[in-house]
Write a structure and sequence with these properties.
Number of domains: 2
Shape: globular
CATH architecture of the largest domain: 3-Layer(aba) Sandwich
CATH class of the largest domain: Alpha Beta
Helix content: 10-25%
Number of strands: 20
Number of helices: 9
Order of helices and strands: HEEEHEEEHHHEHEHEEHHEEEEEEEEEE
Largest sheet: 6 strands, mixed
Structural class: alpha+beta
CATH topology of the largest domain: Rossmann fold
Strand content: 25-35%
Distance between the termini: 86 Å
CATH superfamily of the largest domain: P-loop containing nucleotide triphosphate hydrolases
Strand order of the largest sheet: 6-7-8-3-9-10
Length: about 400
């Protein structure tokens, strides 16, 4: 039998079948095929904005390097989305300036409309046009190109997010995750220097959200665009961002890497945002504090100063107490409750001098029955001390 040079080898057929299965299960396109852009520097200078008499953002300044991914993190109503709208040109700030590559795009002397800023915006609800096909939704921002060039670029963007086979369908035929991918394709297809994303994963279930986060991050890295992602989820911010900008009541509280905000938070509000704590009110005496969980040094605090001693549940090390019910360091707790959480157990401990249970996170298979006594040691790497604020609730 003669060899047919046009015939597909078994390997080729297997590859085609694999690709078809990937498409059927909603797989993304090939890595490295997204169109790259020239990343822009985005700068906020003393931006303040009001809605009526309510302050949405107050004196906000932040410089974002070209190609950097920043997560704006904070509770609902803290001003995150307002800043995105100001950067995109949907809102005109009350005062301050916004600059792209050190050129003012919004300020006292200049205001560029959204379409002239080179900014891609992805809304929380995706904002797809229901009367347009998926292809024409993605083509919407390519009016400057001819029809054939715009279609070619749009199909390439859809191919990268694994949805080219839906090009002729309408948004209602797609799942929430698929609509998110279409919105992402539409945001990046004009190759903007800055991409703004408002809570892009908030409406998705956990498993789908994790996959979309990973794929979206890979795509953003490919495009090399500068990016702001708004989120209220600290874990999401830690997974996605080069730096995190934490906001509270319209103000920037702290900006830094995930490691910096977790290990060296500027205040108790920041610390609580990234971790659960056992919090104990104490007074500084002789350069240290004494608590029911032990005595610790308190450098940098004045004599008699009121402080909050904060210990992460991960920082409590538990072992079996001695037969006399005593611990080598004198700290003994009784197991009050235990919750199995998969890889870890969350243990509630009754400790003398503490009005509420002390929480510890230990490896699963903790092995101590409810009512048994354990020895408690504190890992200083998981201990933080903050000056007590007048508005703080009294801790046990």
């Amino acid at each position: 039998m003669k060899h047919d040079p046009t015939a597909k080898s078994p390997g080729d057929k297997a590859g085609q079948e694999h690709q078809a299965r990937a498409i059927r299960r909603g797989g993304w396109g090939q890595l490295g095929t997204a169109g790259a852009t020239i990343a822009a520097r985005l700068t906020f200078e003393n931006v303040t904005h009001y809605y009526g008499s309510s302050v949405a953002v107050r004196d906000f300044s932040l410089d974002i390097a070209p190609g950097e991914i920043i997560c704006m993190l904070g509770e609902s109503g803290c001003g995150k989305t307002t800043l995105l709208r100001v950067a995109a040109g949907i809102e005109r700030q009350y005062s301050g300036r916004v600059l792209i590559n050190e050129r003012e795009i919004a300020g006292p002397s200049r205001f560029l409309p959204p379409e002239k800023r080179g900014v891609g915006l992805m809304f929380q609800d995706y904002a797809l046009f229901p009367h347009l096909t998926i292809l024409h939704n993605v083509m919407f921002g390519l009016a400057r190109l001819g029809a054939s060039a715009a279609e070619r670029e749009a199909r390439a963007a859809l191919r990268r997010v694994g949805l080219e086979h839906y090009a002729g369908d309408y948004p209602h035929a797609l799942s929430g995750g698929e609509q998110q991918r279409v919105a992402l394709a539409r945001a990046i297809v004009p190759r903007p220097g800055v991409v703004l994303m408002d809570e892009p994963f908030s409406g998705l279930d956990r498993r789908l959200r994790e996959n979309l986060r990973d794929e979206t991050l890979a795509l953003l890295r490919e495009t090399r665009a500068t990016c702001i992602i708004v989120t209220h989820d600290p874990e999401e911010a830690m997974r996605l961002a080069d730096r995190i900008a934490l906001m509270r009541a319209g103000r920037l509280v702290q900006v830094g890497t995930a490691d910096e905000l977790y290990r060296t938070p500027v205040d108790l509000f920041t610390a609580r945002f990234f971790s659960e704590f056992n919090e104990i009110a104490a007074d500084v005496q002789n350069g240290g504090v004494s608590t029911p969980l032990g005595a610790f040094p308190a450098p940098g605090f004045g004599e008699g100063e009121r402080v909050d001693v904060c210990i992460r549940p991960l920082g409590l090390k538990l072992s079996r107490a001695g037969g006399d019910g005593k611990s080598g360091n004198g700290i003994v707790g009784r197991v009050a409750r235990r919750h199995f959480l998969g890889g870890v157990d969350l243990v509630d401990l009754a400790v003398e001098g503490m009005a509420t249970p002390v929480k510890a996170r230990v490896s699963s298979g903790f092995g101590h029955d409810i009512g048994s006594e354990v020895s408690i040691a504190v890992d200083p790497n998981h201990l933080l001390i903050f000056a007590r604020q007048p508005c703080d609730d009294d801790a046990p």
